[in-house]
Structure formats: structure tokens, C-alpha cells
Amino acid sequence: GPIQVEVQSQGPPVIVMLQHLPSAPMIQQGVGQVRLNYDVTAQDIQKSALWFVRVRLAQAGAVPASGTIMVQHPGGDPAVAQAQLAAWAEQERANRERTGIEAENQSRSEFQQFKATVEQRYQQRLAAERTQNQALLNRLRPQSGGMIRSRGLNRAISRINKSEGQPKTQVIIEGTNFGPGGEVVFQLGPNVVGTGIVEAWADTVIVANVPDASGLLPYQGTLAVRVGQTLSNAVPFKFIPVEEAREIRVAQEQDISLAAPSLKTGSMIEHPNQSFGQLSGNKGNDVFFPSRQFGNGWLVQEIKLKIDPCAFPNCRGAYVADSRIGTPSAFFNVRWWHEALVGARYWFSLWIVGPRGVPDGILNTGPLTP
Predict the structure, then answer these.
(1) How buried is 105 (Cβ within 10 angstroms: 0-12 exposed, 13-18 middle, 19+ buried)?
(2) How high is the pLDDT of residue 46?
(3) Strand pairing category for 164-165 and 235-239
(4) What span, in angstroms and rounded, lies between the C-alpha atoms of 236 and 240?
(5) Which listed residue, 162, 182, 297, 366, has the most CB atoms within 10 A of its CB?
């Protein structure tokens, strides 16, 4: 027999959808009265006795629509409907563990790829710099150690090719009377000094690597040339730490506000369907880290969500509605929703990037350095 859905609405246009689970939905859009009609056949019932009615705004906006919904349909067999609902629930339970493991594994795999990309970008910069400096190194290396100067001569740096650098990047130092060899001394932080590996040394030119140091913040320091017990003039040089990536998958109770009903297990957030007979949907907002700030130069790079797959189109979903990407703020807001018969479940992963080996204030909660 016939199914008729009639929506009387006031406000902006709405979209009305009637969907038989095994089939594509029927959709009608309009203002005021919107009506959908369908004649149910025996073949339809053999496929499934379950149907959905959905109403939503045609365009998302602050102005809501209001009105009434009336659904007329042929008489059904409660035993058939209950059997199909029970089968559906059993299928959901069977899928939960499998999809949970898959979501966790996929999330971790994606983060490892991102972490590798951060390291790869650093290595590519090093390789490009070495290629650029190779001709100079080839000229200088035969001269290394081949010229000796008196200790009485003035040893001075006249210029360097760059004023800042990361670990293992190369600095070209020009000056006078550097002698047969020695060390390049970098001031990397308050009371932190390191010597860089010397790639080539001549009396007027030195190529040295910035020390491979970690656990330090950016620091406006100096570099100088030391031969024996004598030290040249110091020139300004800023130490820039190498970046590393970290992943945050757990929020403490004080760092999360979940819409009811809700359950939390590690990075999994679940909103079970507690409607009568699970015949209605639900939606809500979850707020994470509303007042947390990362320290020591750590910044948010990405927020990833993994969502349970649906057995029918658009049965549930979640997305990041607000965040502070590119800032020290860990805050983000997740909007979720689910249809009848199912609940909502997702996993979150917060990716951050900052100085290698330095506490971030949340995941690595060591002392923060001003």
C-alpha cells in the first residue's frame, strides 16, 4: 500500500527524504507544504520492512525551520519488524570490535606517515644545502691542515653565509688567520655550548655543521672559531631546533566536555542510541581541551577523526566544527550525529609539531621553559 509523508514547515526551505534501506532515497525540497508518496510492493517488504524519514534544512544557517510531520503507511507486521531490528542490532555488535581495531590501526598509520613527512622535509633541506655547497667543499678539502699561521696573528671572522640554522645544517665562515684547524663553537642556549662537525677548514674559510642538539628552544646565540686556547671574535647566530611530531589520543576528564549520552575509552568517543526502540536519531557537540595551551613553541597541525562505517547511507557522522590549527591552543569542537537504529562512535587524534625533545605541556609534561 501507499506511504505518504507530509511536512508543513515555516521558515527557510527544507529537504524531506523517504528512504527504504535497500534503495536510493526519494527527496523533495520546498517551503510550506512538502509531500512524498510511494506505493510499497511485496518485493519491497521482502527486501526490508524498515524505512526512514529525514527532514533537514536545505542550507545550513542560524535561522531554524519549524512545523509538523505526518506519516501515513500500510499496516505492518510487528514480528517481522522486530526480527529485522534484532538482526540489525546483531550486525552492529559484530561490526563494533572489527571496525574499532581498524580505526585505531588506520589512525596510527596515518600519524606515522605524517611523522615521516616532517622528518623527510628536514632531510631534504639538508640534502639540498649539501648539494649547493659541494663545489666549495671540493675546493677546500685539499687545503685543510696544509697552512700554518703564527699564534700571534689576529684571528677574526669577517662574515658567515647565514645568521641562523638547524642542527646539521652547514655554516660557511669567512675570515682571516684560521690556521691549520680547530673547532667552531656555537652558543646554543643559556649555558649551553656545542661544537659543530667541521666539513672543511682553510686559513680563510671554514665549513662547519650546526651541532646536532635536541631538547633546546630557539636561541639567539653566537658562534666563534677556536684554535688551541685562542678564540676569535663571536658573531651572532640563532639556533633553530629541528621539529618533531607528536600525537595526542587521550584527554583527561577535566579536558573534555561530552554531550549526553556518552562513553569514553581512550581516544574513542561513543554516543549510544537511547531513544525508544532506537527509532530516533540524535546530535550534539563534544568540546576538547577548552583551556589548554601547548608550551615551548608547540603548535597544532591537524585534528583527525575516524568514524564507524555505516550499513546504510549517512547513518552517522562526525566532523571538526572548530579548532585552532596553527596555534598553541589545543581546543577543538566535534559535531556528531546519528540516525535511528545506530549510535555515533568516533576516534580522535591531535597532531602537534614542535622543537625536538622539548616538553609540550600536555603529552610530554616536563617543565616548561619561558
Answers:
(1) exposed
(2) 85
(3) parallel
(4) 13
(5) 182
DSSP state of 215: S
Residue 289 DSSP SS3:
coil
Q: 208-241 pLDDT, tens per residue?
A: 999 999 999 999 999 999 999 899 999 999 999 9
Residue 157 three-state SS: strand
Q: Which three cell numbers stand for residue 175?
A: 675570515
**H or E segment and range at residue 131:** helix 78-140
Closest CA to 330 of 293, 279, 363: 293
- How many other C-beta atoms are found inside a 10 Å radius of the C-beta of residue 266? 11
Contact 227, 235 (CB under 8 A): no
Q: Residue 145 has which C-alpha cell?
A: 691542515
> What distances in angstroms separate CA 104 from CA 107, 116, 307, one per listed residue?
5, 18, 10
Tens-place pLDDT, residues 326-349: 999 999 999 999 988 889 999 999
Phi (first) and psi of residue 136, to 5 degrees: -65, -45
> CA dist 28 to 33, 36, 350, Å?
10, 7, 39
pTM attached to this predicted model? 0.83
DSSP string, 99-124: HHHHHHHHHHHHHHHHHHHHHHHHHH
Segment 138-165 mean pLDDT: 78
Beta bridge partners of 175: 157
Name the residue with cell 581541551.
289
Rounded Cα distance, 92 and 69, in Å: 29
Any bridge partners for residue 283, and if so which? Answer: 337
Closest listed residue to residue 174, CA positions, set 133, 203, 214: 203
Please classify residue 267 by burial: count the beta carbons closer than 10 Å to its beta carbon, then call 0-12 exposed, 13-18 middle and 19+ buried.
Answer: buried
Hey, how many other C-beta atoms are within 10 angstroms of the C-beta on 347?
Answer: 22
